[in-house]
Design a protein that fits this description.
- One of its GO terms (biological process) is proteolysis.
- With about 525 residues, the chain is of the alpha+beta class.
- Among the domains are: about 90-270, Beta Barrel (Cathepsin D, subunit A, domain 1); about 300-460, Acid Proteases (Cathepsin D, subunit A, domain 1, Beta Barrel).
- About 20% of the residues lie in helices and about 30% in strands.
- The protein is built from eight helices and 29 strands.
- It has helices at about 1-25, 40-50, 65-80, 260-270, 345-360, 430-435, 475-480, 505-525; strands at about 90, 95-100, 110-115, 120-125, 130-140, 170, 190-195, 200-215, 225-240, 250-255, 275-280, 285-290, 300, 305, 310-315, 320, 325, 330-335, 345, 365, 370-375, 385-390, 395-400, 400-405, 410-415, 420, 425-430, 435-440, 445-450.
- The strands form five sheets. It has a 15-stranded mixed sheet that branches. Strands 14-15-18-27 form a four-stranded mixed sheet.
- α1 (about 1-25) packs antiparallel against α8 (about 505-525).
- The longest helix is centred in the N-terminal third of the chain and has 25 residues, at about 1-25.
- The radius of gyration is 34 Å and the shape is globular.
- The termini are close together.
Length: about 525
């Protein structure tokens, strides 16, 4: 019985309190608390009472330092509201790329800075491979002296992990060590070996981690702060084939979709959106930007998988047109490879293409090219245009399918810079990309392109901030090759649906009075 009385009294007090609160709400009574400024005398006194120590600077009220600290706080809050913002990055030495001609295999190169203190390297930009490697503690490397190359004005550098305070050796137990099966123990240094498309061309050595330096662009495209990013790279001790004959003597930067490529590290670390662009003009120079997803008006086509994975930048070519004639049965797959100087077409497509060109111009054979054309002046004669067709009515007009050739007597003519591929997969090489800004959008799994002289200012447009989920790609961006994508849902905004409204004070008071009545009945039975 005493317990019942105690329970009754407790419930009675609770009901009375609820009723009082409800009546207060009906009368418009509000609760309030005092707001105290972070640099107020009250906060300062509170810190003294609680013996809060530290190096926090306490500025004089309304001083320049006072307003400066408030402004810093406001800017920090803006960043917190907006979330982290992606940047547009390029190598610290500049965004320019350059082709150094035949001595360097007609590839495009850019300077990068590696290590602490940083050392500069002139590396080839290669979308057909993943690994960044530089000549390192060389056992078999190309000559690095400027005197070995007619188009080079300075000596090239050699890297050594022991000379960089930021370098870290990778062991065979590391998850990115692909050749761990060749290791005798998990603590052994991780080896690497990469073979390239060119015959007998390879690079091998040890994998290490070091820092790569970039510059960033702000919202207006102006140069901003330096960015230091840790990347995985190859200490290239031994090269073979073309890498000993002038192609990429100072290293190569793989830009492929693999986990060990530079774009992959930058995107995973949150520096950029997972995309980059290469622009090649017709005067042997260009640009490289990490984080660039291209203009809205660009054309695009989806990347294709290989055995279910995106291991290369492969696209599906739906057709090929020469002049006003579109060839029949010319559908094929092609790798988009900036590390290949010229373009390779599957044998059947190649034969149809050159036959169509030959029908308008008489040719002769010029080693190593099968189809060359005489010309008495360096002004190229009118040759039929070439166009590659892609899905969704997108097309790629080739602006530079030929190159000039010279004999001992001087200018001799030009050759069709296309070769037959060994298999049924072609390669869209560097010469076909000339005059375009090529966007390798790995986030949305598509290749984009737009005409460019590579002088246009690329204005960085921030995309999805980090920490928020990326939206699912549209059907164009996500579909699996050979299958029809499900049409995306039509975007729309549903009408606002408020959650259940709280009971009005009047209804609440009725409920409380009912509760009191039940308590009286309960008391009459228990007391």
């Amino acid at each position: 019985m005493p317990a019942a009385r105690s329970l009754f009294l407790l419930l009675l007090l609770l009901a009375a309190a609820l009723l009082a609160g409800t009546e207060a709400a009906q009368k418009g009574i509000t609760l309030s608390t005092k707001l105290i400024h972070r640099f107020s005398d009250e906060v300062k006194a509170l810190r003294v009472r609680r013996n809060v120590t530290g190096s926090v600077y306490w500025p004089e009220k309304r001083s320049m330092e006072y307003y400066s600290l408030l402004l810093d706080s406001d800017l920090q809050r803006q960043k917190m509201k907006l979330g982290p913002r992606y940047e547009l990055l390029f190598p610290a030495e500049g965004s320019n790329t350059v082709s150094l001609g035949n001595d360097f295999g007609w590839l495009h190169y850019t300077f990068i800075d590696v290590g602490t203190p940083h050392v500069s390297f002139l590396v080839a930009v290669d979308t057909g491979s993943d690994l960044l490697w530089v000549p390192c503690d060389c056992l078999q490397c190309a000559p690095l002296s400027a005197s070995s190359y007619a188009s080079l004005g300075q000596d090239l550098n050699e890297y050594s992990p022991s000379q960089s305070s930021s370098s870290k050796l990778l062991t065979c137990s590391h998850q990115l060590c692909e050749h761990s099966s060749k290791c005798k123990s998990p603590s052994q240094q991780c080896p690497y070996s990469v073979e390239y498309y060119s015959e007998n061309t390879s690079s091998s050595g040890l994998l290490i981690e070091d820092v790569l330096y970039f510059a960033s662009n702000d919202d207006l495209g102006a140069s901003n702060a330096s960015v230091k990013a840790p990347v995985l790279m190859g200490c290239g001790m031994k090269q073979s084939g073309g890498y000993l004959e002038g192609i990429a003597p100072d290293g190569l930067m793989g830009l492929g979709p693999g986990k060990i490529s530079v774009p992959s590290f930058l995107a995973k670390a949150g520096f950029i959106q997972d995309s980059f662009s290469l622009c090649f003009d017709e005067e042997d120079s260009g640009k490289i930007y990490f984080g660039d997803q291209g203009p809205h008006a660009q054309q695009s086509t989806p990347f294709l998988t290989s055995n279910g994975n995106y291991t290369t930048y492969m696209v599906g070519v739906e057709g090929c047109c020469i002049g006003g004639s579109c060839l029949k049965q010319t559908r094929f797959k092609a790798l988009v490879d900036s590390g290949t100087s010229f373009t390779f077409l599957p044998e059947d497509v190649y034969e149809e293409t050159v036959n169509e060109v030959n029908s308008t111009i008489s040719s002769f054979k010029g080693y190593p090219w099968k189809y060359c054309y005489e010309s008495s002046s360096q002004d190229l004669p009118k040759i039929p245009s070439m166009k590659l067709l892609f899905a969704m009515n997108n097309s790629f007009l080739v602006h530079n399918p030929v190159f000039k050739v010279y004999s001992t007597q001087g200018y001799g003519g030009f050759c069709l810079a296309i070769q037959p591929a060994d298999g049924d997969i072609g390669i869209i090489g560097l010469n076909f990309m000339s005059g375009y800004r090529m966007v390798f959008d790995r986030e949305n799994l598509k290749l984009g392109w737009s005409r460019s002289k590579c002088e246009d200012e690329i204005i960085w447009v921030p995309g999805n901030p980090l920490g928020t989920a990326n939206p699912l790609p549209t059907n164009e961006e996500q579909r699996i090759p050979g299958q029809h994508a499900v049409s995306p849902a039509v975007a729309g905004r549903a009408p606002l649906r408020p959650s259940a409204a709280p009971p009005s004070p009047l209804r609440a008071s009725h409920l409380i009075k009912l509760l009191l009545l039940l308590l009286v009945l309960f008391a009459s039975r228990t007391l």
